[in-house]
User: What shape does this take?
Amino acid sequence: MKIDLTETTASKINKALVQGRRAIGTPAVGMVLTLVIVTDEENAYDALRAANEASREHPSRTLVVIKRVSRSPRDRAKARLDAEVRVGADAGTGETVVLRLYGEAIDHAQSVVLPLLLPDAPVVVWWAADAPQDPANDPLGALAQRRVTDAYAAEQPVQELSGRAENYSPGDTDLSWTRITPWRSMLAAALDQAPCTVTSAEVEGEEFNPSCELLAMWLASRLNVPVRRTVSAGPGLTAVRMESSGGAIVLDRPDGSLATLSMRGQPDRAVALKRRETSELLAEELRRLDPDDIYASALKFGVDRLGELSEQPAASSAETSAADPSAPAKPAAKKASTKKATAK
Assistant: This one.
C-alpha cells in the first residue's frame, strides 16, 4: 500500500502510517529499529531495494531522506516536504517513508526525521551516497547509535579512509570493511590450523578498492608485519599471500566467486568467497549495534603507514619490535587470528 503526501508535515506522515497499518490489518508495530537512509535520486532505488531485502532479517522502519536541489533562488528559499508512505508488501517486512526535502528543509533534515523515529528503538543511519567526513557530528548521524558509510562510493575511495580515521567515533563503520568479513574469517581459521609466525604478507586486488587497503591494514595491525599492496584487474580482492615459518599461506580468488586455500603440507581446498550484494552487507551490519573495535584499530593504523611498511623488507617479530619500540608486541599468530575470528 502506498500513500502519497505533498507539502506535508511529520505529523501527517505519522497519521498516514497508522492509517496504512489499519488498512492492511496489522495495527501492531513489531519493528526492532529505525533505519535512516541518506541518498540522492540516482541511488535511491538501489538503496531502498537493499533495505527492503535486509528488513526480512531485521524488521524496521526505513526513512529514506532525499535532498532535492532546487534550481531557482525562489525555490531554494522555500521549505517543502513531500513524502511517500509504504506499508505491507511494498515495504518489505516493515514500514518505509520516502522523504523528499526541498529548499531550506534540506538544512534541517534532522528536524523532519526526529518525530518519525520509533520510540525506544535503536537508530542506524546509512549514507548510500555522499557521506560526510565526520558522520558522528552530522545532524542526522548524531541521532544514531550506528553510522554506516561506504568508502567505495566516494570520489577517491582510498583517500576517504584517511578522513574516516581522523574523524572516527565509536559506532562508525563502513561497508568496505563488511565486504572483507569472509576473508578475515578464512585467514584467521587458516592460521589457527597451522600455528606459525607470519613474517610478511601481500594483499592483491583492484587499484581503487578500499576493502583491499582495510584488509592490508588489519593484517599489519594484528600481526605487526610488513604488508605489501599489489594491484590486479579484479574483481575486488583477488589474493592474500602470507609468508610464515611454516611456509606460504595463499588464499586466491581470481574470479570473484570461488577461492583456493593453499598451505604447506595440506591439499588445496576450494572455499566459497562470493562477492556479496549490498543487502547482505547491510543485514550483517544491522546484527550488531555496538562499536567495532577491530575496525577502529585497523582504520587508525593508517593508509600512509601501510605504505611505509610495504617498502620495508620482511622482518621477524623481534626485529620489528626492536626497530619500533612504540609498536605493540606481536602476539602469536594463533592468538591474533582467534581474536579476529570472534570479533565480527
User: Anything to note?
Assistant: The longest strand covers residues 60-67. The mean pLDDT is 83.
